[in-house]
Amino acid sequence: MVTTLKNKTEVNKMLYRSHEVQGTDLPIFRQKSEDLLTHEEMILLSDRLDKFKIAGYVQVIKFGKVFFEPVYGVRN
Question: Is residue 50 part of a domain?
Fold first, then answer.
C-alpha cells in the first residue's frame, strides 16, 4: 500500500489508533528519524505535496493514549 498526497485537503485525519494501522505493510517507528517529515513539516517545507509519499507511522502518546501519526519521505 502506497499513499500519495495530491493536495493539502486530502489528509484530514492525522492521528490513527492501533487498529487502524494494524496489518499495514508500512513500518511503525517509536521515534521519527530526521529524514522523515510529519504532515505539518511537509507543508512548511514545500508547496508540492505530490513529491512526498507516506513512509510509515510514528508512535505518539496524547491524552495518555497511544496514537500513530503518518510520516512522509520524498518520492524517488
Answer: yes
